[in-house]
Amino acid sequence: MPFQLDLFSEMEECDQDVSVVDVYDIASEIGKEFEKIIDTHGTEAVTSLMPKVINALEHLERLATKNDRENTTVQELRARIMHLENDKIEKAEGRLRFEKELEQIEEHWRQESRDLLSMVTRLQDENRRLSSSLAERDGMRGDGSGPGGGEGDSLDGSGMSGDWELLCRLRQTVDRQREAVRSRDNEILAKNSEIEALQEQVERLSMVGRELRRKHHSAQAQVRGLVDERADFLAQLQDQQREIGRLRQRLGIAQKENEDLTESL
């Protein structure tokens, strides 16, 4: 039958992503077919079949509505996961750049430390040489507490103080950079946890979607069964119409024979 073939074709097309509009289209086609049956055979011909069809269509509509909501939610979650994945990649790239910069800073700090240690060693040697020279000169003068000794101590103390201040500043800078790296690591871990939670939610929604598709297939099977039942019902009606035609023909013959007998009497 054309309607049956068209209905199955339409149901196969919306097999995976049936929508409420598709259900309304199917209901409209079924309604047209019911009107044809009623016009031909009267309302009694569809009285028992119509509630079953309506119930199946309402069930299919509920499934389609729920399927639409689940599809929308899954699409939103996928978009959010994609955004988080991109954010994760950007954070990872930023972390790599930051670590590279930190390595450069640490290397610069190590080089500065080596240079400063070399400078400190050189200054200490120079201070010892100057102190020895001053001591010899003061010994020659017979005054070991002259102004020269105080000047040597001042040179030694001021040089060491400036070097250690620079070392402390470098260490503080490195500590700040390391703390920033730890903060980035914690942020990336938090993003990873959020992505994993969203992925679990998507998997759960996918399972719900599979269950909805299973129920949808069941509803389709129910509709197909009703369509088959309708086809059988129409076939029975046609058989009854043919039987009624034969009975009317026999009745006509019997009436003709009765009239002939009446006239002969």
Number of domains: 1
By CATH, the topology is Helix Hairpins
Q: What's the Cα radius of gyration? A: 48 Å
| CA-based shape | rod-shaped
How many helix segments? Answer: 4
Return the structural class: mainly alpha
Coiled coil: 60-87, 188-264
Domain RH1: 6-94
Region (Disordered): 128-158
Protein name: RH1 domain-containing protein
Characteristic terms for this protein:
Helix Hairpins, 0% strand, DZIP_RILPL, RH1
Task: Please characterize this protein's 3D structure.
It comes from Ladona fulva (Scarce chaser dragonfly). One of its GO terms (cellular component) is cytoplasm. Keywords: Coiled coil. This is RH1 domain-containing protein. GO terms for molecular function: dynein light intermediate chain binding; small GTPase binding. The chain has 265 residues and is an all-alpha fold. The protein has one domain: Helix Hairpins (Orthogonal Bundle), CATH 1.10.287. The chain is built from four helices and no strands. α2 packs antiparallel against α3 and α3 runs antiparallel to α4. The chain is rod-shaped and about 185 Å long. The two termini are 53 Å apart. The relative contact order is 0.11. The N terminus is likely disordered.
